[in-house]
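Most newcomers find our protein records easier to grasp once they have seen one. There is nothing in a record beyond a sequence line and a structure line. Getting from the letters to the tokens is the skill we practise here. An example says more than a description, so a record of this kind follows:
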Amino acid sequence: MKRKARGTIVAAQPEAAEAGADVLREGGNAVDAGIACALVAGVVDPLMCGIAGFGSCGLYLPGKGFHGYIDAHAPAPLAARPDMWANLIEGEARDGYGFVLRGRVNDIGYRSICAPANLRMYFEAHAEHGSLPWSRIVEPAIHWAEQGWTVRPHVAFWWSDDGDFGRAPNHARLSHTAPAKALYCRPDGTPKRVGDEVVNRDYAQVLRTIARGGADAFYTGEIGRAMAEDLARNDALLSAADLAAWRTVRTEPLRGTYRGFEVTTNQPPGGGVMLLEMLNILEKFDLGALEHGGAEHLRIVCEAMKIATADKDAHVGDPRFIDVPLARLISKEYAARHAADIAAGRKASVSRFNSGAVSKDTTHVSAIDGDGNCLTMTHSLGMPSGVVTPGLGFMYNGCMGVFDPRPGRAGSIAAGKARFSSVVPSILFREGRPEIVIGAPGATQIAMGVLHVILNAIDFGMSMDEAVGAPRFSATSDMIDVSNRVSWRTERALGEMGYEVARSPYGFGFAAVHALRVLGDGRIDGAADPGHDGVAIAV
């Protein structure tokens, strides 16, 4: 989509994107639109995101002179201990997205839940920077919860997922608690399918309470009390004290440059450091002169991905608990040394405790309005816990699954500590003006998908539709993963270079990027990832 517009919103769910577009039409700004969109997404994509999840919200409001992040990286409960699961380890996901433990205690059920962080992020972003009443922003989500929505193809695909490498399958998450099963499963216990209706009146009532009472009604009011009672009954780590204590984190953007663009992204424990490190390395190569999708293109980019992944595993976590060597990791000099190794044909290595597969329970919204206000927000449930408290209708995150159960590491468990997340909502500026607003769901693959689209748009001169839709690949271990649209010729050439290649049976994957680009003539080029069900809407 490329047209003159007062504003544009791009999201992974059509109902959510339309809610945001309607807000823009009514005179709301990009923040109003993005938060309305996010609340609807929690209704119509309930395993991907929601008010009990986590996220990172990047905001640029030139009229206010504001550019910053409101982060909601869900912290471990106050009852968590570094060594509490050290004797239960069965393996680590090959892409680095979490650990598999005996009994799956970190992965599914009440003990997998971290603080439900998203709602306070939504509420504060709107309270500080929105223009329409909060009740108007919540209204579309109430409508879809109460009136019902029909299961879309990507939702059905994801709900029926069988899981990999010991992870709980998503259909088990849907049926783990009786309220979740009643909402999302057919009478025979199987997940609802394309065209089936989901009506969630309990959640509509929760949203009405939030529309009247704001975030406090959720964390310390009647909803919070209902959550705390259910959590205590079921031996959760999370408690009323965690709900009352949770606060968002405010940060300045993490800044870098790439081929004349200023790149602004989020601070640790978000994935911005990985994105800047990879861009710094790849700036040393003339990527545009290479065959797009050819073996040399894949080799160079995958080596940069591996280097950033190894550095993330070793050094990046919650900066309140560990010292993250940010200056070194995002320096041009550090990148130049790694680029020289890649140019010389040397291979990086990413160690893993064991092997596994990718998780992608996340979604994203990018929005811009006629005044140049921008919102880029990635929000998620992590690996959803499967837990729905009776009478409340929303699912909790399962963020404990991504902590490292081995004490003494960057990602180890600690009370109140946020785990690393690859979420990387970003804005790229040229000559002081926002040009690309971008982000993606996709767990560990998020930074990789965002990297792909930035390279496709800047180095290969693609339109945003082309950049988002081009075949993707990834390397978050010593193996290169490719989608089924990467050529077999390229795969054979990589094999001859000594790489092990894993081919996905799917044509899309490795994150689902949703992005927009403001063109020189003022038109906005927006694109929703074709692997999901989303849309770009200009108003």
Remarks:
- The chain is about 35% helix and 15% strand.
